[in-house]
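Reply to dn_fold:

You asked what the input looked like. This is it:
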Amino acid sequence: MKIAIIGYGKMGKEIEQIAIERGHKVTLKINSQNVSDFTFDNLKNVDVAIEFTTPELAVNNINVCLTSNTPIVVGTTGWYDRFDEVREIVAENDGSMLYATNCSIGVNLFFKLNKYLAKIMDKHNEYNVSMNEIHHTQKLDAPSGTAITLGEGIVENILAKDTWVKGEAKVKNQLGITSERIDDVPGTHEIRYSSKIDDIEIKHTAHNRKGFALGAVVAAEYIANKKGIFTMEDVLFN
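and this is what came back:
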């Protein structure tokens, strides 16, 4: 499979290494120095693109790939306020897109665990739930997309919570998500259920970027010959 990497930074280089290890070729690598190479003609020689850039660039990158009939895996977060626009682009071009708040296989298993725990904790009102996430200082959005997905999984399954908020919760119906930015932390997400008697905690800690890179390549393999909009849940559980 021929892969384009849109956003050839630290993550892009990890993706390239994993892709080659899995028998693929990276035939197009785009960063801020060679944006002029991001053209329809160059994408004609690509089976699938993997996009890890910034929220400001993501939608245009998606548009370019889909209008050139190139399936795309989008690992960038922070652009979801334009999701309806992107959905239309996919439909108009009969395209293929997989988007993920986190491509890591381990994190997506953690998403499932989080929902299950929330369901069984729903009846135990003596516990209050909160979340903390830590990322590297280059992480632009806070809370992280991963934290938001986790928060939505909790709110969907605990009747006492109907919204998440950035920072400490001010009222009982809120789930508070606190964020820290520390050098060289790939990503840590911790969910705590606290009572006067004890605490119950689940935690996912990424040791490096390889998990995100592997998940992105696995996602690319999944959508290469498909049409529509997909998530990592489709890859792992359907």
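The chain has two domains: 2-103+210-237, 105-206.
Hope that clears it up.
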